[in-house]
Design a protein that fits this description.
Helix content: under 10%
Shape: globular
Number of helices: 1
Oligomer: single chain
Number of strands: 45
Radius of gyration: 26 Å
Distance between the termini: 38 Å
């Protein structure tokens, strides 16, 4: 739907309101078509989360958007790990894209630079001006791996005028955060800006093993330096470099039930477990399916996973005349990850008895570097044609390895345990489950033009297309600690068209109809024992929408309905097996037969009820059906699902502000609901539905003295009602123990002080 999330609709470049206009909604500027346009005049389905909305929700990383701020946008951890995020839009939600030869279905961008990996997406956000959520295939202007859409983050740029913003806050769970953003005065033709961020939180679940980290912790730090060079009025060069470190631990995976299949239970001390039976839990193991455990029942070795991200980008802009702009975007980025995940103790296999090893420590390394270059021409031909044309090049190399030793050992009766020799957990001494390397190279040429006939100024026809050449190859060179030589090699070229017809019914109402395509590249599963490859999946999408500003721009109503047909859907099937005293998760990715249908509707509204009160709501309906697919592990045709896609989701919000003793009082409240979803493609069992409330009150524009900085004091809470729900449920081990899963983060709250110079 072509509208901002209503609660977030704040002007980016809107003029100051007159007294008569004080209750009118502000215009919103977006760059979804590679040029600045008014959102309400842009026939693309977009939601916008601006900097004020991010502050109201205390959003410090993309993970915080998992609360449902944008109902059609789904953000989840991969497994229970904060080190990799799964991002989906409109039912395009890849379950396991954190392998070297796997791809995302939603493109993530910062200032037009594509971030190719799930890893590192949980890093601290650095002075974001707005987040644009482009829904539906974006294959023409954004390219491969944007079949579900694109999430585009736009940062604030250097101004050449001195200003400084300093932030400091504290909260529960030992959390604290600080930010410093400085624009330096211009020096000759140069402007400079520095942004630094620290965001820390202690464990949600404590680890009883002394000296080890808990679960759900994070310590995120980021630094970016920018310079803008403007030697002439028609040329600008922006150079930026950033570095980030995201230290985190996974959320605790706890046993939600025991023996749901009602098998015969034999004692924990039994020497064998007959067929059709199940071993009793050790006496110290706890089952809790109602709330997150605040202290784990089993202490395990656990250290921080560390995501190191770094990169640099150069943006050049040249206006040879008033009717055209030539742009260049050159970027290099790296992600290095050391993963440590010992999240379940005795709550998942290996399920073993007296004097045996348990507690699977998932250890992995992940290394990626990428280079991209894009050239764009953005301009107009007379008064009737606006166009965008471009060339794109992308290349990356990605490697990973994984090991899963068991760290604990039971005593004879399950009343205690010891910790094993840590040597097998140290890099260089690990028994490697798998190791692989993949390469990708993509080249594209694209163009898009909008024609507005001189004789019919209310009609706008947009036609675009992108031709892409994709080359991928990879090698799985180790399986179960033995050298292998499994390879895959793929070359694909394709054309993705887009056609949009828009009509201005009046100055306040616009309608549009759109056809577009997109695709997600194929690859191979490094979790497969044979590096099994799979083909790209493709989407054809049809959409109609309406955007309107009514009641003298006090009421904004937008709606869209869409139909997407996806072929060769990439479906993940996993099999957990016990290998000695550890376990292996083998995963095969299969292209589903036939056509996957995704049908949906989105509604968004905003009402400026008074000069001081703004009400808003948004809703997303998604109905996704995949043809039954053969499970490669048992050759049985079965139902499959799209993970983390609720049928119904909505968000409502209220924002209030009023003068208060020379300052301004502000209050924000939002409520976010989502139906229950699946966690896996192959299991019908669902997670819990969710209802999350966030709130914030603040006193802003506090003037302490002439010439002194203005202050803001705010109190915030995420999950204000302390709602507990299972966001990830794994039924893989029902026959050997039960379901285990992860609860959402409990209520967090804090106080924050901001000083603006």
């Amino acid at each position: 739907m072509a509208a901002a999330i209503p609660a977030f609709a704040q002007a980016q470049t809107a003029p100051a309101a007159t007294e008569e206009q004080s209750t009118a909604l502000d215009d919103i500027v977006v760059t979804a078509t590679k040029r600045e346009t008014n959102l309400q005049d842009t026939p693309i389905s977009i939601s916008v989360v601006n900097s004020e909305a991010l502050a109201d929700r205390h959003v410090q990383s993309l993970m915080d958007l998992a609360d449902g701020a944008v109902p059609s946008l789904r953000v989840q951890t991969f497994e229970a790990r904060q080190s990799a995020l799964t991002i989906g839009i409109r039912g395009i939600v890849p379950n396991d894209a954190n392998q070297p030869a796997r791809e995302q279905g939603v493109g993530v961008y910062v200032d037009g630079v594509y971030l190719a990996r799930q890893h590192g997406l949980g890093a601290a956000l650095l002075d974001i001006e707005r987040v644009e959520v482009l829904k539906g295939p974006q294959g023409t202007l954004f390219g491969r791996n944007t079949e579900g859409g694109a999430l585009s983050m736009v940062t604030r740029k250097p101004t050449g005028i001195f200003d400084m913003r300093a932030v400091a806050g504290v909260g529960n769970y030992g959390s604290y955060n600080s930010e410093l953003h400085v624009n330096f005065p211009a020096f000759n033709d140069f402007a400079f800006k520095v942004d630094g961020v620290i965001s820390v939180q202690g464990p949600i679940t404590k680890n009883p093993l002394p000296g080890q980290t808990g679960f759900g912790e994070y310590d995120r730090r980021g630094l970016r330096i920018q310079t803008r060079w403007t030697p002439t009025s028609n040329f600008t060069a922006d150079l930026a470099a950033d570095i980030g470190k995201d230290k985190n631990t996974p959320f605790y995976s706890q046993l939600l039930n025991f023996n749901p299949n009602n098998l015969t239970v034999v004692p924990f001390t039994s020497a064998t477990v007959p067929s059709g039976s199940i071993r009793a839990l050790a006496p110290i193991v706890q089952v809790n399916g109602t709330s997150v455990m605040r202290v784990a029942d089993i202490g395990v070795p656990q250290q921080y996973s560390v995501d190191d991200t770094r990169g640099a980008d150069l943006h050049l802009s040249y206006h040879p005349n008033d009717s055209v702009e030539i742009r260049s975007i050159t970027a290099y980025r790296e992600v290095d990850v050391e993963q440590y995940d010992n999240i379940a103790g005795a709550h998942r296999p290996p399920i073993v008895g007296p004097n045996t090893n348990f507690s699977r420590y998932s250890l992995a390394g992940f290394w990626q570097h990428q280079f991209s270059q894009e050239l764009q021409a953005v301009g107009s031909l007379g008064d009737s044609i606006d166009y965008v044309a471009g060339l794109f090049y992308f290349k990356e190399t990605v490697s990973d390895d994984a090991a899963t030793p068991s760290t604990n050992r039971w005593n004879a009766d399950g009343t205690g345990y010891t910790i094993n020799d840590p040597t097998p957990t140290i890099r260089g001494f690990r028994s490697i489950d798998r190791a692989s390397t993949a390469h990708s190279e993509s080249k594209a040429i694209y163009g898009q033009a909008t024609w507005t006939p001189a004789s019919m100024a209310s009609l706008h026809l947009t036609v675009g297309g992108r031709y892409t050449w994709d080359d991928k190859d990879g090698i799985l060179y180790m399986v179960n600690n033995a050298a292998t030589n499994f390879t895959f090699d793929s070359s694909v070229d394709r054309f993705d068209p887009m056609v949009t017809l828009a009509y201005d019914v009046s100055d306040q109402v616009n309608v549009y109809a759109k056809y577009s395509t997109g695709y997600r590249a194929g690859g191979a599963s490094s979790r497969s024992l044979t590096y099994r490859s799979f083909d790209p999946e493709e989407v054809k999408a049809y959409e109609v929408g309406v955007k309107s500003d009514l009641l003298d721009n006090r009421l904004r109503l937008n709606a869209a309905v869409y139909a997407m047909d996806r072929t060769d859907s990439q479906i993940d099937f996993s099999l957990v097996t016990v290998v000695g005293a550890s376990t292996r998760n083998t995963l095969e990715t299969i292209n589903a037969p036939g056509t996957t249908t995704i049908r949906g509707a989105e509604l968004e509204g905003q009402f400026q009820a008074t000069e001081n009160l703004r009400l808003s709501a948004s809703y997303a309906y998604t109905d996704a059906k995949i043809p039954d697919t053969v499970n490669p592990f048992n050759n049985v045709l079965q139902k499959v699902f799209i993970a983390y896609t609720p049928e119904n989701a909505f968000s409502v919000a209220a924002d209030f502000d009023t003068p208060l003793m020379g300052a301004t009082f502000k209050a924000h409240l939002d409520v976010n609901y989502a139906d229950a979803t699946q966690s896996f493609d192959q299991f019908a069992i669902t997670n819990d539905q969710s209802l999350i409330v966030n709130g914030r009150v603040a006193i802003t524009d506090i003037q302490t003295a002439p010439g002194a900085p203005s202050l803001e004091v705010s109190v915030w809470s995420r999950n204000l009602l302390d709602e507990q729900y299972v966001y990830r449920r794994d039924p893989s081990n029902r026959a050997t123990i039960g379901d285990y899963g992860n609860f959402n983060t409990p209520r967090t709250f804090g106080i924050q002080l901001t000083a603006k110079y």
